Amino acid sequence: MPEPAGSSLASRDRGLVWHPYAPLDGPEPYAVEGAEGARLTLTAPDGERFEAVDAMASWWCAVHGYRHPALDDAARAQLERFSHVMFGGLTHAPAVELAERLTAIAPGPMAHVFYADSGSVSVEVALKLALQYQAARSRPRRQRFLTVRGGYHGDTFAAMSVCDPVDGMHAAFPGVLASQVFAPRPPSARLVVGESGEEHWETDELAVEEWAGQVRALARAHTDELAAIVVEPVLQGAGGMRVHHPDCLRLLRQVADEHGLLLVVDEIATGFGRTGRLFASEWADVRPDVLCVGKALTGGYLSLAAVLTTSLVGEAITRSQFRALLHGPTFMANPLACAVAGASLTLVEAGWKDDVPRIGRLLTTHLAPATHLPRVVDVRVLGAVGVVQLDEPVDVPAVTLAALRRGVWVRPFRDLVYTMPPYVTSDADVRLVADALVGAVGEVHP
């Protein structure tokens, strides 16, 4: 059908297409007219046009920005060979080469890779794997998971069950989600970087000690029914953008070892340099049993995630009743996605050690004025992540527009106005992002 005469893209979208956590009759979205580098060209519902720095890296995945020549070339080269083949009974070079690289750079001795369609699906696979692992170890009654409040692991059903059950986004499904074991949210911490670059962590040590006792007590009480511990390392993402001390992850590793549990570390948001380490687990020098990665894996070009496991886990699955990990997506190990992911890893390895600290220093300096705003309760920076937390819910449409008029695209949520910009964002644009966040909050929440 031809489009209605005079109708904007946004008006045609409204009522037709669902957007994330938004009603069909919600505000009309901004239309993307173009994207290059760290910038988006947007058209507002009223026709106003904006050239804006993307402070969100398209929900944290477009770490190399848009239309990156190396990623474009990788996609074109693979398209000239084949864009997709089934992974049942077949293999291909992009999948094998990417798996070799992932296991080589992962925290700890990872030996096996399972490809999934998205981050949520990778968590589903990790949870199924943990159940199969325990059954293979003659502990089939271990079918629950220990996790922490404030976590977010995705929107599919098993993943939802290990997200925060009260403050999370899935309160509408309490009767159908599996009942898991929740420890308190880890106490907040802050990474302090000195003028010469030295780093040290600050936290309430007594609070961490008390939290550790609560975790240990829960693990003891539920040992016979727990299969694994599931956690986002050091930085909780969509559950509140909160930072916790690496000691919390070390404690969970100890508890897992003491009770025969797998430690499943969700690095979907934190992997590939975002927190100031290639993987956030490295802040604690912790080696997980199962590692989930996604988001930045393909630089935001295509949806792809991966589940990595140790050889011990792989051997247990191979000795189990079914001998296989019981999952198999249609688009598993999509060659096009794997080829782009390989190019993305090359870019990450070449640049993150310079770019992430650079962005972090600029965010620390230029977000600092937000601490003087009356509605701001906290400003925190970890790696290339900057967060301004308010004492009330953010007026999302108003803050979004106020930031756009300052040249920056942001997507706040809850009480948070935050940024996770592409690593390629220039110094001037990082300053622009920080100044826009501070200015927008000051304007809308005086």
TrEMBL record:
Entry keyword set: Aminotransferase, Biotin biosynthesis, Cytoplasm, Pyridoxal phosphate, S-adenosyl-L-methionine, Transferase
Q: What is its EC number?
A: 2.6.1.62
Residues the entry annotates as binding pyridoxal 5'-phosphate: G119, S120, D266, P329, T330
Broadest EC class assigned to this enzyme: transferase
Alphabetical list of Pfam families matching this protein: Aminotran_3
- Nucleotidyltransferase as UniProt keyword: no
Record PTM N6-(pyridoxal phosphate)lysine, positions in chain: K295
Signal peptide range: none
Stored SUPFAM superfamilies: PLP-dependent transferases
NCBIfam families membership: bioA, PRK05964.1
Name under which the protein is recorded: Adenosylmethionine-8-amino-7-oxononanoate aminotransferase
Q: Which gene encodes it?
A: bioA
